[in-house]
Specification:
Elements lengths: L18 H7 L5 E5 L1 H9 L4 E7 L16 E4 L1 H8 L7 E6 L6 H7 L2 E5 L5 H14 L3 E4 L9 H6 L9 E3 L7 H6 L3 E5 L6 E2 L5 H5 L1 E5 L8 H5 L3 E4 L11 H13 L1
Parallel strand pairs: 2-3, 5-6, 5-10, 6-7, 8-10, 8-11, 9-11
Antiparallel strand pairs: 1-4, 2-4
Helix pairs in contact: 5-10
Length: about 260
Amino acid sequence: MITNPLDERLADYRALTDVELRTRWEPPNGLFIAEGELVLRRALRAGYQLRSVLIDAKRVTQLDDLQLAGIPLYAGDQTTLEAITGFHVHRGVLASFHRTPQRDAADILRSAQRIAVLEDINNHTNVGAIFRGAAALGMDAVLLSPTCADPLYRRSVRVSMGEVFAVPYARLEPWPSALDAVRAAGFTLLAMTPAADAVAMRDLTPAQRARSALLLGAEGPGLTGSALAGADVRVVIPMHNGVDSLNVAAAAAVAFYELCR
């Protein structure tokens, strides 16, 4: 039973709401945090190795069926958990996992048929939602520009409901010249944009759909000029009632469905 929030054994869980601190701590130390029992179990099924578990003392028996021998399990009341993490842990379970080696983009390109390519999407909620949509709607993989948010950041993992573990992903570097490697691997580069010359997604040809890489830009600015210039086709989701665009995660879901139907 943990009663001291400053216990050195709990460093993995310290100040989880401080994005800058977590960015400096998690990737360099090869770890990520899973929030909630469902996400913890999905990470285990995906083969990630547990470092430790921090749990509301009232919920300890929820994990009795898991093989946790040798894994530190720290239990405390909600007041102590909140003092450690910086927020009310209403899901009651946090787990620290070891990261696996990063995938190589070239390896992903060899095996995938339809991929999403994210440019400068640094909102963790949007990244998590895009991964969930990719898993649910049939996309094979996600490639990220160097400035995209970490898919294994706690909020991304939580919003994805653990689907970040199910979708292969890699960083695509150098950006944007590495888009040439995507094309060389046989993909048609489709750039999402509201531009007047964009093709409605429903009008894409079978050849353009067959092996496609859908480029998605950050909320607001969209894709950069260099990314748009590197695409083969500009595509758009037709809008109604004067609405000019959708949230990037919502647009991604619509586009994923259209590409994979």
